Amino acid sequence: MGADPARSASEPFPLASPVVCIVGPTASGKTALAQAVAQALDGEVVSADSMQIYRGMDIGTGKLPSAERLVPHHGFDLVDPGEPYSAALFQDYARACFRDIDARGKRAVLCGGTGLYVRAAIDAYEFPKGEQVGNAVRERYDRIARERGAQALWELLRERDPKSAAIVPAADVKRVVRAFELLEEGTSLAEQRARLASIPQLAPARFVGLAVDPAVLNERIDARVDAMLEAGLVDEVKRLLQSGFRRGVTAPQAIGYKEIVAALDGETTMEEAVNRIKTATHRYAKRQRTWFRKDKRIRWIDADDREVEALAIEAIGVAASSDDETL
């Protein structure tokens, strides 16, 4: 679904019904809840996940299989792993989805754990124009990452902008490169992050967060990783490598993929790769919790040990609320 070039990223747009945003850390149950809410509200799901956009990256990203999609889902399989993509492109895509879903009398349910994608879709988040193709700054630092490695690129950022380096992991090449782009524009990633709280909301929305005790969540993550291995994650990675997966910059850095690649290359054992996936996912979930906890619009519901039907009833109650803070 294409963007609407006539609209500015900071121009409010009306919808007949507010978007229901279901957020939280990985393995908290967002996918099942979003689908249940969409079924109950005659809606459609828009995925806000920066890795589920890639074709062929299904098992390792937790993408809901086609056979299990009981309502229409948007945001899956938008580009091949080697193609560039960003929150700026997702902003246009998601908003076009919202308008189209709303125009057909359906309810949009935004579901995902990529906090920047959620903010980009709902809030007046501005991005530089024309940043995807022919961006000399991006190409320069992407090349450094390819030739010298992610750690070397991050250390270069730490020398130039220690505050920004402190808030982005070395493995997140995409955001490290973005930090260099912002430096070229006369600002910084740290400054941008500090301004997040003051960015106004554009789309009408209700926010539901799934709160899971960290110990319980880590157990779910470990079980989920084991299930991914049983479902064929290693074979999925092999197929991606055969199709040129290594040529990408962002996709090959995804948790669950880079570790398996290292094992297939003989750099580590498969057992150690699985342990690394679990540890990295625990850390990622912690960062997600930190990000979302800062958003005071989110109404948190306990998702430690509850059936999806009960969670859906509570989430629908939030969606039906008229709390001014979520308008």
List the helices and strands and how they pair.
Elements lengths: L18 E5 L6 H11 L2 E5 L25 E2 L12 H17 L3 E6 L2 H8 L13 H13 L1 H11 L1 H4 L7 H12 L4 H6 L10 E7 L2 H18 L1 H10 L15 H7 L5 H24 L4 E5 L5 H12 L8
Parallel strand pairs: 1-4, 1-5, 2-3, 2-4, 5-6
Helix pairs in contact: 1-13, 2-3, 4-5, 4-7, 5-7, 9-12, 11-12
Descriptive terms for the model:
alpha/beta, Histone, subunit A, Rossmann fold, about 325 residues, disordered N terminus, 6 strands, 13 helices, six-stranded parallel β-sheet, 2 domains
Textual characterization of the structure:
By secondary structure, this protein is α/β, with parallel strands linked by helices. The chain has two domains: 19-125 and 199-326, Rossmann fold; 136-194, Histone, subunit A, CATH 1.10.20. The chain contains 13 helices and six strands. It has a six-stranded parallel β-sheet with strand order 3-2-4-1-5-6, sandwiched between helices. Mean pLDDT is 90; it is low at 2-7.
- Strand runs, count: 6
User: Describe the biggest sheet?
Assistant: 6 strands, parallel
Structural class: alpha/beta
The structural domain count equals 2
CATH class of the largest domain: Alpha Beta
Write down the secondary-structure element order.
EHEEHEHHHHHHEHHHHEH
Give the assembly state of these chains: single chain
Q: What is the typical, i.e. mean, pLDDT?
A: 90
Low-confidence stretches: 2-7
- Rounded to an integer in angstroms, the radius of gyration calculated over CA atoms is 19 Å
| Approximate strand percentage | 5-15%
CATH domain topology of the largest domain: Rossmann fold
Q: Which overall shape is indicated by the principal axes computed on the Cα atoms?
A: globular
Q: Please give the alpha-carbon distance between the first and last residues.
A: 26 Å
CATH architecture of the largest domain: 3-Layer(aba) Sandwich
* Helical stretch tally: 13
Query: Quick one: CATH superfamily of the largest domain?
Result: P-loop containing nucleotide triphosphate hydrolases
Order of strands, main sheet, comes to 3-2-4-1-5-6
Q: Work out the helicity level.
A: 40-55%
